[in-house]
Amino acid sequence: METRSLPETIRTIIAQAGGLGLAGAFTYVGASQFSYRCAQAEGEYRSGRPSRLVSEPGQGFIDYEVGLQARVNGKRGRAWTLIIAYERDDTYTVWLVEAWRGRKADSMVLACHRDVYCDTLQSVIESTYDEAIREHNGGWIPLS
C-alpha cells in the first residue's frame, strides 16, 4: 500500500499502529485489502459522530466516518475485518468483526475497544487479535 497519497489522518493511524513494516500491528494480524474513509486529505480530520454497530434487516455493519479497515487472518471460511475508527474526541475505537452468511448483525462483533489513545493503539490491536484467535479459533491462526 502506497501511503504518500493517503489523507494525513489515515497516514497517522498507520504510523500509530506501528506502520506497515514487520514490527507493525498490520503485519502481526495479517492485514490485507485496506480501505479507508476520510473526507479531508490535508490536516487532521475527525469524525462528527461516534462509530457504532448498525443492524438493518438482513445485514449489519460498522458505521464510522473516519478510519481505516482491513481484512485480517481469522477463522477459515469467515471474513474477519479490523476497523480502526478515529473518533471526535481524539481517541480510536478498535473493532474486530466477522461476516458470513449465518452471522446475525447483533453477533458479528468479535471485539470492540473504545477510548484507545494513540500511544496504545498498536498494543490494543495486537491484544484484541490474540484474544479473538484464542476465543473464536481455538488459538490457531490460519496461514491462508
Written account of the structure:
The protein has helices spanning 8-16, 25-28, 121-137; strands spanning 32-37, 52-56, 59-63, 67-72, 79-86, 92-99, 109-116. Strands 1-4-5-6-7 form a five-stranded antiparallel sheet, covered by helices on one side. It has a two-stranded antiparallel sheet with strand order 2-3. The protein is 21% helix and 32% strand. The two termini are 20 Å apart. It has one domain (8-137). It is globular, with a radius of gyration of 15 Å. By secondary structure, the chain is of the alpha+beta class.
Using brief descriptors, characterize the structure shown:
single chain, 144 residues, alpha+beta, five-stranded antiparallel β-sheet, two-stranded antiparallel sheet, 3 helices, 21% helix
